[in-house]
Amino acid sequence: LMKGFVFALTELDELPSTVLLYNSGVKLSTQGSKSIDALKTLQAQGVEILSCGTCLNYYDLADKLEVGEVTNMYFIVEKMAQADKVIRP
């Protein structure tokens, strides 16, 4: 389901400015994820891809990040609070 959702984001006429990955969602940006190509496509088109560092550590994936940057939950919450629109699967 998430693979389809992330791919659908690449097909939007107006791309999101940022994709925030937290909790188990960080697995989408790490080795073995079937969403890596779609996330890389989004990143190449200027979309900011951010994964929660604490979440990556919790799932023991900190060294397996394939796309995007590491951030923290404070920054993620701040981004969501400032956003005009938040799309959730």
How would you portray this structure in words?
With 89 residues, the chain is α/β, with parallel strands linked by helices. It has a single domain (2-82), classed as 3-Layer(aba) Sandwich (Hypothetical Protein Ychn, Chain: A), CATH 3.40.1260.10. Helix content is 38%, strand content 13%. It has four helices and three strands, in the order αβαβαβα. It has helices spanning 2-10, 36-44, 53-58, 73-82; strands spanning 18-21, 48-52, 69-71. The chain has a three-stranded parallel sheet. Helix 1 packs parallel to helix 2. The chain is globular and about 35 Å long. The termini are close together. 25% of the residues are buried. The mean pLDDT is 97.
Secondary structure layout:
Layout: H1 2-10, E1 18-21, H2 36-44, E2 48-52, H3 53-58, E3 69-71, H4 73-82
Parallel strand pairs: 1-2, 2-3
Helix pairs in contact: 1-2
Keywords:
about 90 residues; alpha/beta; Hypothetical Protein Ychn, Chain: A; 3 strands
